[in-house]
Structure to design on (106 residues):
């Protein structure tokens, strides 16, 4: 995971730093969880493709199905913490729990 990734507007912050703050930033945690989800999605797509015979063993349609499935699974996994962290009234305990459960930095 690239800690200098600024696609979402700011560099990622390792979860240990997020936990050490007096008030963890829910938006930073959301971004970190989404980055972690994208990393897992890429890894699992590559693993599935390899298990199915590699790139040469799949049609474009089969590859697209694998990618869509991986996206749907990751979206489902991050949906609940994303919704909780999006809530402006999220308390520090909820943010810390999301960090601990989803270990956004691997």
């Amino acid at each position: 995971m690239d800690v200098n990734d600024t696609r979402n507007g700011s560099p990622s912050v390792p979860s240990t730093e997020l936990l050490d703050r007096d008030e963890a930033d829910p938006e930073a945690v959301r971004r970190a969880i989404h980055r972690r989800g994208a990393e897992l999605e890429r890894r699992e797509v590559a693993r599935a493709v390899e298990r199915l015979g590699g790139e040469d063993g799949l049609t474009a349609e089969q590859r697209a199905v694998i990618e869509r499935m991986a996206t749907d699974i990751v979206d489902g996994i991050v949906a609940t913490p994303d919704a909780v962290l999006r809530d402006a009234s999220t308390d520090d305990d909820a943010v810390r729990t999301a960090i601990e459960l989803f270990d956004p930095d691997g």
